[in-house]
Amino acid sequence: MLREQKTSKMGCPCQGMLEAESNKGVRSMAVLEIVKENRVNLLEEILDRNNLNAAYAQVLRKKGAGGVDGMQVGDMKRWLKENKEEFLKLLRTGRYTPQPVKRVEIPKPDGGTRKLGIPTVLDRLIQQAIAQVVMPIFEKTFSETSYGFRPGRNAHQAIKQAEVYYRAGYTKVVDIDLAQYFDTVNHDMLINMLRKEIKDERVIALIRKYLKSGVMEGGIVSPSETGTPQGGNLSPLLSNIYLTKFDQLLENRGHKFVRYADDCNIYVKTERAAKRVMASCVKFLEGNLKLQVNRQKSRIGSPLKVKFLGFSLHKTMGQIGIRAHGKVMKRFKEKIKQITGRSRGRNMQDMLQGLKQYTTGWLNYFSIADMSTHMREINKWIRRRLRMYLWKQWKKIATKFMNLQKLGLDKGKAWEYANTRLGYWRIAGSVILQRTLTDKYLESLGYMNIAKKYEVFHLR
Predict the structure, then answer these.
(1) Rounded to whole angstroms, how far apart are CA atoms 193 and 9?
(2) Which pairing describes strands 215-217 and 101-107: parallel, antiparallel, or unpaired?
(3) CA–CA dist 163, 145 (Å, integer)
(4) Mapping DSSP to helix (H, G, I), strand (E, B) and coil, where does residue 58 land?
């Protein structure tokens, strides 16, 4: 039944859609207290109408592509309306079988590809419902310096904590890189960790099914012997649970560290201490947690040079601050160059809209970095690229002559520049184009001044 989940979109309210009518209002306050006390009825809490509706709304907000069954996010309403009773019955009786995860490859910023899993939308719904109930149970066990995929925590807090350590004299960093972490988690060890807090074996069995659901790649389904359902709503929580033992080891030894998912930096005061910490961490991660440490990417260095979550620290005139890493800045300019390339054949408005979307998202993340000077320089560079873009669009001498006059240039100068043999980049930087294609004019076309936008974000 679950493999024929194709439907068309229809508009109907999601309120009350996921819980069967016969079960509304069944759970008494007494039952709720029992659930809170020993968690033996955790499955009922997961399948509670309010929890499922909240999970449904979250899946709708995130959207995303469909999985192996072809169902899209917008198709869920109708399918659930027609099949919710049987769907919930399968979940309650333990007969529900998750679909394999669709495996796709996405390009990495530094070259190569990263494998990403796409669960079906129904499996994303169930995983989200599980995560919403299980996360509060494990939150109390997580480290204060673990910032990834936790409520009220983010990457900005992580890099700021790294800055605190550096200011306190911890000027060496042990940067540990785990090779294919989400694909190498040991299932049996993870299940044992879950059992310490979850006493409802039905929930354990359901999570195990997701761990074993398999991967479809090129139309072929392969079993999942290790790893978490990457790309799913449950995977970030499970990854945090699995690495909690490592966090506890570091805390028990008094180490200063920051972890964001599988990115972990440990801060020490000397090179000798860093080497000792690196060796002991590799031994624990590979021996006790059965993970693989990428020795080529793991290293000891200075927080002023090592990239962490796209950032590094900087030291100017004795002052410590946060900056976007050099490699990040290079990729930022390369992406802008790609967007503003004339060969893509888009009109000016479409190009500017794409540029605005990309730079707004980038600035929103990197706005905590100290880079006012960089943003002013890049802003000037972008404006020059836009002038070059327009000059190329005009193409013909007659078009250039007419447009330059419209923009206020006298007839003689307009004719002179319309016939220039200067290259596109040189003419884009000329005084004449700066006088005609002014900053104000470019902004009237839709260009967002990123230097101004950065200052707004940076002061938030």
Answers:
(1) 41
(2) parallel
(3) 13
(4) helix
- Phi/psi region, residue 180 (left: phi>0; alpha: psi -120 to 50; beta: rest), is left
Rounded Cα gap, residues 298 and 291, in angstroms:
14
Rounded CA-CA distance 446/450 in Å is: 12
Rounded CA separation 287/273 (Å): 21
Question: pTM of the prediction?
Answer: 0.84
Cβ(54)–Cβ(19) under 8 Å? no
Residue 29: pLDDT band with limits 50, 70, 90:
very low
Alpha carbons 455 and 451: distance in angstroms, whole number = 6
Query: In 3D, which of 192, 423, 220 has the Cα closest to residue 289?
Result: 192
**Residues forming beta bridges with residue 114, ordered by sequence position:** 106
Site of tokens 């100290």: 370
Under a CB-based contact definition with an 8 Å cutoff, are residues 96 and 90 in contact?
yes
Handedness of CA 134, 137, 141, 142 (dihedral sign): positive
Alpha carbon distance, N-terminus to C-terminus of the chain: 51
**pLDDT at 345 exceeding the cut of 90:** no
Whole-angstrom Cα distance, residue 209 to residue 100? 10
Here the tokens at position 457 are 């974000």
User: In whole angstroms, what is the distance from residue 460 CA to residue 454 CA?
Assistant: 10
H/E stretch holding 216: strand 215-217
CA distance 445 to 314: 36
CA dihedral defined by 408, 413, 415, 420, rounded to 10 degrees?
Answer: -120
Single out the residue of 50, 335, 46, 48 nearest to residue 210, CA to CA: 46
State the DSSP H helix or E strand holding residue 118, giving kind and residue range, or none if neither.
strand 113-118
Task: Kindly state the DSSP code that residue 368 receives in the 8-state scheme.
Answer: T
> In angstroms, what is the C-alpha Rg of the chain?
27
Are the CB atoms for 402 and 417 separated by under 8 Å?
A: no
Encoded tokens for 384: 């020059």
Strand runs labelled E in 298-445: 299-301, 311-316, 319-324
Which tens digits make up the pLDDT trace of 97-116? 999 988 887 776 666 667 77
